[in-house]
Design goal:
The chain is α/β, with parallel strands linked by helices. It contains 6 helices and 5 strands. The strands form 2 sheets. The protein has a 3-stranded parallel beta sheet with strand order 1-2-3, covered by helices on one side.
Length: about 220
């Protein structure tokens, strides 16, 4: 029920950040609602970027990678839980999550028009493991400055920073041969009809070879 609630909150415009839990290193050891598919589940790393042994792991029951990102959650400086007048050091994914949440807040300050999925995507796809995400680090350690400068490029389905024939081949392979899903699903939605289908291939071919409209923007 908490997972359903987190997803609903996200669809209503709230950027939801949630701790993965401190039940690692076992596989699928996360706590709900970290398995929600529209939120930012946060793992914990040390100051050197090494995953904490306690940081819970994915995947979800339906095979999705978790966490989304990681931040420092080992020997993190924080308010003393038993004395609000002093500070100390503590550990846990409950320490890394507020750091990610703070960065999400900065992104919304810099880009007040961004909806939750844009904040989530910007943090995930500028993190240091974004090309090889896994169920330990997810997409990796966040990079706030890179996230602030992140751009959304529709059509670049294979993430090569170029819009060309390779995108057409990639989409054909995905739709007809069971190839990899576009790097981000919306990038394959070149005609902005909210789904990746054959018309998107036609739209992209028309743009590349006939001077048709460029892929829509988000």
């Amino acid at each position: 029920m908490t997972t359903f609630a987190a997803d609903i909150a996200s669809t209503l415009g709230i950027v939801v950040c949630n701790a993965m839990g401190n039940e690692g290193p076992d596989v699928s050891s996360f706590i709900t609602p970290a398995d929600a598919d529209t939120i930012i589940a946060c793992g914990a790393v040390s100051s050197s970027g090494t995953i904490a042994s306690f940081s819970s792991r994915g995947p979800t029951a339906d095979g999705r990678i978790k966490p989304e990102v990681v931040a420092r959650g080992v020997f993190a400086f924080c308010v003393n839980a038993s004395d609000t007048n002093t500070f100390g050091y503590s550990g846990g994914t409950s320490l890394s999550t507020p750091l990610v949440c703070g960065c999400a807040s900065v992104l919304l300050s810099a880009h007040p028009d961004w909806v939750p999925w844009k904040v989530r995507e910007a943090l995930m796809y500028t993190a240091d493991n974004s090309y090889t995400p896994d169920n330990i680090y997810g997409w990796g350690l966040i990079d706030l400055l890179a996230a602030v400068n992140y751009t959304f490029n529709t059509g670049d389905v294979n993430r090569d920073n170029n819009l060309g024939v390779s995108e057409v081949v990639y989409l054909i392979n995905y739709l007809f041969k069971g190839g990899s899903e576009p790097y981000l699903h919306y990038r394959g939605n070149t005609n902005c009809d909210q789904e990746v289908t054959i018309p998107d291939i036609i739209y992209l071919i028309n743009h590349l070879f006939k001077g048709g409209p460029a892929p829509c923007s988000y």
